[in-house]
Design brief:
This protein has 440 residues and is of the alpha/beta class. It has helices at 6-23, 27-37, 39-50, 65-81, 97-102, 116-126, 140-148, 169-180, 190-199, 213-223, 247-263, 278-290, 317-320, 342-346, 361-368, 380-396, 398-414, 418-431; strands at 57-61, 86-91, 107-110, 130-134, 152-158, 184-187, 206-208, 239-245, 268-273, 297-298, 308-310, 326-329, 351-353, 372-374.
Length: 440
């Protein structure tokens, strides 16, 4: 059975030692560090109170919100197949905490650091029958020690972009043991399956089952009530909803909007930053003032007649896309990566995004279908001019815009079904419950 290397363990111990210093600079990191300190004890306390060893237990782990959405749809499908199962859900990012609190698990918390002592304590207490990682976030110590204890280890919604840092030589060497411990992997596409092999997953253990995010997105859009007041913010005017934006996105968007607004004063912009902190919202307000634009209005005061509406709270983007006639998705100018383009597509909106989209399979699918348009330039001036032209084109060509939006919806609905197939795979693994080999 594979085990982690001394180099990996040294790297993790060094990382945990340096993490508090990073927390001094980033409040979100500091919050996550503080919560992670006691996460193991909270999970152990749940085990003492609620773990029923006569019932199988599936342990899901997803790093952040995107991976959590993929895991959630599979988790719900597994619940229907295995109602007697207990389910534990862990995450790593502080941004995933609200989702973890709402997810349909028996217990949820941060994942403690991937150290042998942490892993052994949790495995001995939880005694899981199945460990499930979402997307790519395999923790080698947890994976190898779980497999060594007789636990099946699964990887679902497995996506490995061609430019993933995990494919580099050093990262592959450090992480390889974790991937070799995978019992079954559900890859999103053939390309992902090929790159999983490069990471160390045995090829005979890989199946191509699609992306559960499509199911999750369709379910979220269907769950928005027709009478939701957020849907009325369009007010019959051409409205672009810009979601999960970063400052570079906003610099391009607001300048392009200023040009469109001069010709079409009825145009509207709903702007939803990825991190709607007070400082970020104030920066956007100053930018609108410097461009001579109307002052933005927060969601609580918006009436549907406002030129610029500012998304000043989290958890509403899925509904806000429904108020648009077109969409822009942020992240295509920076290193963090393009955010999800599936939600606006599920609403039947054509989608715009920045030039750095090539690590997003979903963006590629939309572009191939003629349902999206990527800005061709990173430089501010050319990007602004290109966005303004496309924005004006979609306003003036209603039929063309709606045709593109219909193609976007088709792309999303064509991907539905992966959650059910993946849950079937997990249910088969649970049904063969093998004896556990607990570490002393």
């Amino acid at each position: 059975m594979s085990s982690t290397s001394g180099a990996y363990r040294a790297a993790i111990r060094l990382g945990t030692a340096l993490a508090p210093a990073l927390g001094l600079l980033r409040p979100r990191i500091r919050a996550g560090l503080q919560a992670r300190l006691d996460a193991g004890e909270r999970l152990l306390d749940w085990t003492r109170r609620h773990r029923d060893l006569n019932r199988p237990l599936a342990w899901f782990h997803a790093a952040s919100v995107g991976e959590g959405r993929q895991a959630e749809s599979v988790l719900l499908a597994l619940r229907r197949r295995c109602p007697e199962c207990q389910i534990v859900y862990t995450h790593f990012s502080p941004s995933a905490q609200p989702l973890a609190a709402a997810i349909a698990s028996d217990a949820s918390d941060y994942l403690p650091y991937d150290l042998p002592e942490n892993v052994d304590r949790l495995l001995q207490a939880l005694q899981p029958d199945l460990l499930v990682f979402a997307k790519l976030d395999v923790w080698p110590e947890l994976s190898t020690r779980a497999a060594g204890s007789g636990v099946d280890v699964a990887l679902i919604a497995a996506t490995v972009s061609p430019g993933s840092s995990r494919l580099r030589w050093l990262a592959r060497r450090l992480l390889e043991a974790g991937y070799r411990s995978i019992t079954a992997a559900a890859a999103v596409s053939p390309g992902d399956a090929y790159r999983l092999e490069q990471l160390g997953v045995a090829p005979e253990r890989i199946q191509i089952l699609g992306d559960p995010r499509f199911d999750s997105v369709v379910a979220r859009v269907k769950a928005v009530a027709p009478e939701d007041p957020l849907l009325r913010l369009r007010g019959g005017a051409p409205t672009l909803v810009a979601g999960s934006t970063w400052p570079r996105d906003e610099a391009v968007l607001l300048r392009a909007f200023a040009g469109v607004f001069r010709e079409r004063p009825d145009v509207r912009l709903i702007l939803v930053p990825h991190e709607p902190t007070t400082a970020h919202l104030e920066r956007i307000e100053r930018s609108t003032q410097s461009l001579g634009l109307p002052s933005p209005v927060g969601l609580g005061k918006a009436t549907g007649n406002d030129s610029i509406v500012l998304g000043d709270r989290v958890g509403v983007l899925a509904a806000l896309y429904g108020a648009g006639t077109m969409a822009y998705v942020g992240g295509g100018f920076g290193r963090a990566g393009l955010h999800s383009v599936l939600e606006p597509a599920a609403w039947g909106l054509p989608v715009l995004f920045g030039p750095r989209w090539r690590n997003s399979r979903d963006a590629e699918l939309l572009l191939q279908a003629g349902a999206a348009w990527a800005l061709p330039h990173e430089r501010l001036g050319p990007a602004v001019r290109a966005l303004q032209r496309q924005w004006q084109n979609w306003i003036s060509d209603n039929r063309g815009r709606e045709t593109r939006g219909a193609k976007a919806r088709e792309v999303v609905h064509s991907g539905v079904g992966a959650s059910e197939q993946t849950a079937d795979l997990l249910a088969r693994l649970i049904s063969r419950r093998r004896p556990r080999k607990l570490r002393s």
